[in-house]
Amino acid sequence: MIYEEDKPIIEVKDFSLYMNNIVVLKSINLRLYNNESVLIYGERNSGKSALLRAFVHLNEELFSNVYGKGDIKYRGKDVREQEKKYLRSNITYTEPQYLQNLNFISLKELLKVSLGISPHALSYDHISLLKKLDLMNKFVDLKSLKYYNDLSNWSSADKLSLLIFISLARNPNIFMFDSILDHIDDVLLKKIKDVISDINQNRVLIFATRNLFRYLDICNRIIVLKEGKIIFDSTPKEFIINFKQDKFRNL
Ligand SMILES: Nc1ncnc2c1ncn2[C@@H]1O[C@H](COP(=O)(O)OP(=O)(O)OP(=O)(O)O)[C@@H](O)[C@H]1O
């Protein structure tokens, strides 16, 4: 099927999510289009992660007693009806917990599981991405890779860059970064922003955060969640006007 490009890539219709019989997302309506860079902003527990995980049908896997009502469609088809492997290769979700997970996997295994390749099979594009993320020194001497039995001795910054590399190298249609860039220094943030901004057309970028101002420069749309509801959805310019008028005093 050829998908018409002016149609939403993600379409959420009247979607509510319940966990342990508590409603955590309330009647969400949302359309995401190609080439949007979307900031999802909200205080702790506002539902940012729950919403992004719902796009890849992940809440049900992580938690018990999860129930969704309403629709979430990826390219016109309900995400619950799509093969998970297909869905998750087209929509990548990266969250801080994955940094912990890197302590229990070797680099070789990680490349195999996430990209289906061995360290010796990195392509030219992979290598140029690794260079941009200052990771190439870790890969230069392929023999030394055997020492990376696990990645626990890597710095947090290098682990994060590696996660970004994996996410970008998978070349999905939708990138979802959940709070992942919130705690890094400005130099690395700038480097990662430059690499992310370089991604070609036909993609959607989503950043979920409690750190609004870190991302304003790379987003063209801001969605504010509060207690599981969307309370704002417009441009950064509109957001600043509302912000100045103290409309978000209670956030
Ligand atoms: N397993 C669970 N059972 C019941 N409620 C849960 C469960 N996991 C999360 N919640 C609730 O779902 C709501 C949304 O949580 P979520 O993690 O999506 O918020 P968030 O905005 O991403 O928060 P943070 O900024 O802290 O990451 C919260 O009220 C949280 O307490």
TrEMBL record:
Keywords linked to the UniProt accession: ATP-binding, Nucleotide-binding, Transport
Gene3D superfamilies the record matches: P-loop containing nucleotide triphosphate hydrolases
Domain ABC transporter: 10-251
Highest taxon in the source lineage: Bacteria
GO molecular function: ATP binding
Pfam families in alphabetical order: ABC_tran
Name the UniProt record assigns to this protein: ATP-binding cassette domain-containing protein
Organism: Marinitoga aeolica
